Amino acid sequence: MKLLVVHEVSYPKKVVYEIHEFPELLALNGHDVTFVDFDEGATRKDLDQPRDRVINGRIHPAASLRLLTPHRFGIPQIDRIWAIFSSIPLFWKLIKHGGFDVILNFAVPTYGLQVTLLGKLFGVPVLQRALDVSSKIRESIWNPLIALFEKLTFKWASAVSTNNPAMTKYIIGLMGEQFRDKVVMHYPPLDQRIFKATARDQKLATSLGINPKDKVLMYMGSFFYFSGLDEVIVKFAESVAQDPALKLLLVGGGEQEPLLRELVENHGLSKNVKFAGFVPFHELPRYITLGDVAINPLIVSTVASAAFPHKVLQYMAVGLPTVSTKLDGLYAAFGDESGLRWSSSPIETLEIALDILKNDQTQRETQIRLQRDVLDRLFSPQGTVNKLEATLLELSKLRRNHA
User: What are phi and psi of 162, to 5 degrees?
Assistant: First the structure.
């Protein structure tokens, strides 16, 4: 198949997740993949980079993709709005003359409607991939407009692909029961050749201020306003007062980072809470292995419950006992028999994680084994990409019938 994949983030710069994994796996399966991105952080010095080029995959270097980026000025404050308009001639030409069999669209507010409407105009089916609730992922005055774009993009797509059962429920609730037949669920892939248990890198640990006898809780990912990390840090201060060997390692960054750093400073936790920043994808297992227990303390809400935090899969694959708030999407996938421990709040997440630190080796290994078993069953790269590929092939028949 000839596939057009679309998202409104930078393919080369964005933290690696399924927007990279699925296109690269499809390319390795022999499909011709073109990806349109949006260079959200472009500055004027970035404008020398060709806007139409062939690249190798970020996860799978053997994969080859054509990467296109609409015109931008290199002024971040206006480029996002400009992209709504500058993308139209690009998508018009691509979809009308590109000979694509099907479009896999991750975009909503910036490109979503253009791609969906032009797909309908030129008879190219669109599979809309729903990863999160776009209108709630960030606090913004634009959220009501994004919510409208979201609903129209789902409504006019040929089909909608969700990444977990809770997202499926959200889409059907938003669109109505008559929409159910248009929704299909595809779990994201997890490459356990990359995410696997390894020995702790003590040199890396030392560089982050982590000592061999420290007991380390770790969080990896974006610091969204609903991360729950602010509550965790405040409560963590009480635990550190009783046990100075406790450490909290935060890998990532985001909008909440200034608040988190302020809390760390105000509670005298600079020796116990370590900010590692964003790290390259293939380096993530080295950092995860520094932890003894992983936490996912997201506040239970619509936006968090419908999402599917990929970091939880990565924690589990690397071999860390993991605790998460009981988010609908995660719980529907894993349930009570997966080894994953559930909590009702960020503070309870911390409390359970601290209890797990007290477990003996047998208890720890049992939890890790249960976690790995469910990963093997649901999230293998070949199994997940094969299911997505089958849906794309089915939709591609619409193109041939239209022709």
Answer: -110, 160
pTM confidence score = 0.84
Specify the number of domains making up the chain. 2
- Please give the backbone phi and psi of residue 237, each rounded to the nearest 5 degrees, phi first: -60, -40
CATH of the domain at 171: 3.40.50.2000
Furthest C-alpha separation in the chain: 71
The tokens for 302 are 């619509």
The pair of three-digit structure tokens given for residue 22, joined into one six-digit string? 């699925």
* C-alpha to C-alpha distance for 130 and 162, rounded to whole angstroms: 5
CA distance 269 to 237: 7
Interacting residues of 244 by C-beta distance below 8 A, sequence separation 6+: 272
- Rounded (10°) angle between helices 112-122 and 76-97: 10
Shared domain check, 296 and 261: yes
- pLDDT for 354 equals 96
Q: Tokens 């596939």 correspond to what residue?
A: 3
Domain that holds residue 299: 202-378
Same domain, 144 and 258: no
Stated length of the chain: 403
* 242 and 184 co-located in one domain: no
Which residue(s) pair with 113 in the sheet? none
pLDDT tens sequence across 362-373: 888 999 999 989
Together in a domain, 184 and 243: no
The answer to whether 31 and 24 have CB atoms below 8 angstroms apart is no
In angstroms, rounded to a whole number, what is the distance separating the alpha carbons of residues 99 and 363? Answer: 55
DSSP per-residue codes, 290-336: T-SEEEE-PPPSHHHHHS--HHHHHHHHHT--EEEE--HHHHHHHTT
Q: What is the pLDDT of residues 294-316, one digit of tens each?
A: 999 999 887 777 888 889 999 99
With respect to residue 196, please indicate whether it lies within any of the assigned structural domains: no
